[in-house]
Amino acid sequence: MVFEVLGRIWRLQRALREEAERGLKGLGGLEAWLLRVLKHHPYPSEAARRMGLPLPTVSHMLRRLESAGFVARALDEKDLRRFAFRLTPKGEEALAQAEALMEEALRKCLSRLSPEEVQELLRLLAKLEEA
After folding, report:
1. Domain count of the chain?
2. Contact predicate 34/65, CB 8 Å
């Protein structure tokens, strides 16, 4: 039963991500998620912790995002040994597009449910998160 539940969640997440990624140009779903995290948590170590990813993975993604012009690196004014990342206008635009595509993919998926079923799904997901 555990693997059935996890498998269904994983397949649904993957289908939503792939649907959204079709509309993204030069940006993967994980990179779009990193842009979203960086918007509020500009330090690589904090972003890695929040995403549950190893720091080297996030660092590699940041190098790619920086070279593509989605983010810019700046020295931390309080600690000159650290770098903070901020989204560039190109990164802001890409994030907005990614969020819109994900929202549309989720809306299409949820359209199979009645409004009551959507509310029940949200309630059950919240209950599972509490555990």
Report:
1. 1
2. yes
